[in-house]
């Protein structure tokens, strides 16, 4: 008899990936999945890739989730706080949305608006002390996709004092699933194929999360929509403080992390190699002309960037090995 | 202690997918992988998506494979027969290539050329009696990707006498991984993105395999290269002999097949829903204008079309449930 | 001083392509463009590729178009008839929609529904007598994209008696722009990239147009959505009546057609080669196994399949060379 | 009778685009095209999108080009200098390769190696004085694709003193045609679709060209290969020196440039809108968190980034309006 889990907000892309992972998880029993506007429909009608999964979507309300020992919230930003407040105290909760990530209420107000629900334990196990904090928590705010890609590349360098925190420049490109499943003209296949398109330039809502998680104090972050369904490639540059080898810093930080791989010298991360996995690939160098440290990271935005990360957190919360039911290997080509 | 398995020809796309499946298989121990020109290199250098898999490629020769109980051959067409002949008699062998699929030596000579190595047990478990034959075999010729997509759509209809075998028209489009990993200008990303390109029109080497497996006697088969990495969509049309409902015939044929899914009425297979899985999705109707039966099937050419199919066969050969280590669910979007 | 032209329904993909062609046309002056829901916006805000074109969209009503000598209608199916009826009698009109293509009111009722507006001169210049009819017409119904790809491949063979008209099988795949610019979940980039997806299988509304234009009496037509923005590849098979060489028939039919190219033997059409052009590429063979004639055609669905075709018709109507302002050459890669 | 032009190195992607532009140019007569390994083949066999162009490729040697008034060199880097030296003195030459771009022999030696051929007039008309210099030149080194995208975004800001030249960070992603047409495994469609892949991180050969053209003294430049055939999106960030509005600086710099478009506030450049055109789209803002200036530019790497730029230069050299035979508008979707 496994641990009973449920998913609220299962009709989006992160929700679908979460269902895929949970359906194949050896210790979790998927007992319920809900979706606001698709309640009553079989999962396979909403996610044809899950054909064979015999489950009907329920309405997104506390009663539909009450049977579960652990509940995943995969709702649009701003919608999980209210639902979370109505869930039983003894249920463990992993929120894939942004509602409980920020400790700074002002930053929440500025980038998201509305009341700040308060911060939960931040769900990035690879941060120092992360595993223990998550294992002890009943409520975990899983990371944003851009934040995880940037933080894994940058946080150890700032923590080690190897780079200055006040002049960080990040350009990160994401596959279109990161923009969600709502029908919008600018996300049509005809518009995105063959196209690279920057958005929210100069003021992206992920900036406060990235600063909080990395310790950066000055951050220029430009996101770009790329013509592929999945994947984030983050190019992170910062000014070194001395001669520390950024590869050595990263290698030490992730020596025991099963999902974070510093590639051999000369090999650079690329997104396809992480698709379908929970892995993050990293590489670093020092730019010969500018002297800046350049770190590149690649993740699957729906994997380590969302659903895989959430399952990793859930594994820790219930005392399982963090790798249970997750794949280190990508599905490629 | 699991069953010891090895892969010969591990540097191509089917080989990489096979390694991914075997590395995650709960009952198989991957003890060796070989590749002609990449011998001595770590697997992750050739397949970055397998970063974390600690294995070095060996040379493709019998000695490198001798430790295995079961050997997968993922070599170019025409190269597996010689290697197979040099393997120990007590090793089980699954060949992903074409060398041992055709029973008709003339068809081999016509479409492939060279000496005919003779036919092995044909590795499509969903054919009538297929599971038992494969379970009893020591040598299995796993199916071609186009053949599996077409055969699962068509064979039950011909076997049931529901359609005429002498006037079958198939147009099937494949993702580019089906064309292999050799560097060729017409397979460059710049050439294939945005492009649909037919090839070998009027005389494709998969025709005799499809005829053998389906019982078709007259077959027009046109393959098309499509701008995506994975997936085959086969549109199969044939002339009905009477009023049999093609959906009912297919439903009966696959009632006990865990990987073949006849979709609910009105839902049509599409390739993305099968990506990364070992599933085949099917749908059928009768064309209102021409009266022809139309069956559409979708598979992942590297999954049910190659590596997944090979693992399914191997599971049966060693007495495991056929689904062991394989996923019914696709990785999508 | 050129011929004054206007476009009604300029916010969709065909409308945008039409504006591009008209803005570069040496004899046409683009005096107005309208769009229902985008009226008042600059063209470049709706079609960023037309940045630099100084024109504001008007409301789609007769008054906004009255200044033009020739009016293009690029409206959704079912909407052009009403507008056309309200236009001045002395204005020439080219309709890119389906409203005036079908001569058979029953076929209209069955596939489109609503009142049948009556047929206009069919705008495919390459049909026998087509150029003269179009040159003499004041109202022209330009072809559908699937119809032009299929008709150019098939019509000469039926007209010459080289193939039987009663057993034609067509599978045609289209880029996503053929599905329009309305925001729909199944057309999102995340859904279409990596995906081949058949639709309206067994009963597509283009069947009556194709039958009317080709003379086919029995037609199985299966359309497939392909992961690319533009292009149609049609695979047309039919039963030969004798030994006529299909290449010879096609070569004769298009000897004087500047936009229809029978490729050299062994070269097969592919869509990317026609992107951005008004060309159709053709090739034909006889299948060695089935004996069926296979003809493959490629067009740009927005070019020869829509906007380019419309401009070609307009050129003929006003007495210009049919190639004026159109490109034989594609934009590739 | 037009100006006689020829293309050396016509079998690559830039060469193909150049042939397309020249075939449609109203004042240029394309009299010869050469290609090392494809000599003797018809152009349409090498570039199917140019079906209908009746021209056979010659061998790449001076005699084959001697008839032309103006010769375009579209050869691999390092190969044009030798050919150029053997051309008649009275022939005008536009080199699309890197051989004659760098004034600094040391930079050439460091990034390219081999003898430095010496610098020609740099072919970027939009630089201050550029048009006049090019109009007066007989030998012009046309820009690199990354250089043009970066320079148009950055040069006016440095020239105006609006940003510091010593701390510029650029991340630029290119479509795959920028990587050329040589058959390489990492450029196969199966590898690039769904993938973002950085390359030459920390030491790219375009750095000295960009520094020379922009006046930057400290430059971190990271190129990324993106899953699309065409297009470059450059994200350029720099530290402002004061309160100058970067939009105002750019608007002033390009007030008379027909191909460079500063988009309306709030609209950001994206690559698809420039595909097939000779345009560059620009937008700028100041990052709210870091205070850095962010400028984004989009070009077609084969258009304004290569072939279109070369034709624009040629137009100026022969005294034609710079826009002759070039399109401001993109082909999209």
UniProtKB/TrEMBL annotation, chains A, B, C, D:
Any single biological process term in GO: L-arginine biosynthetic process
Keyword check for Repressor: no
Entry keyword annotation includes Cell inner membrane: no
Pathway in which the depicted protein is active: Amino-acid biosynthesis; L-arginine biosynthesis; N(2)-acetyl-L-ornithine from L-glutamate: step 3/4
Domain Semialdehyde dehydrogenase NAD-binding: 4-135
Pfam families: Semialdhyde_dh, Semialdhyde_dhC_1
MF term (GO), any: NADP+ binding
Keywords, alphabetical: Amino-acid biosynthesis, Arginine biosynthesis, Cytoplasm, NADP, Oxidoreductase
Location in or out of the cell: Cytoplasm
EC number(s) recorded for this UniProt protein: 1.2.1.38
Reactions catalysed according to its record: N-acetyl-L-glutamate 5-semialdehyde + phosphate + NADP(+) = N-acetyl-L-glutamyl 5-phosphate + NADPH + H(+)
GO cellular component: cytoplasm
Coiled coil: none
Catalytic site positions: 145
InterPro entries in alphabetical order: AGPR, AGPR_dimerisation_dom, AGPR_type-1, NAD(P)-bd_dom_sf, Semialdehyde_DH_NAD-bd
Function: Catalyzes the NADPH-dependent reduction of N-acetyl-5-glutamyl phosphate to yield N-acetyl-L-glutamate 5-semialdehyde.
Family: Belongs to the NAGSA dehydrogenase family. Type 1 subfamily.
Name under which the protein is recorded: N-acetyl-gamma-glutamyl-phosphate reductase
Organism encoding this protein: Micromonospora robiginosa
Gene this protein is translated from: argC
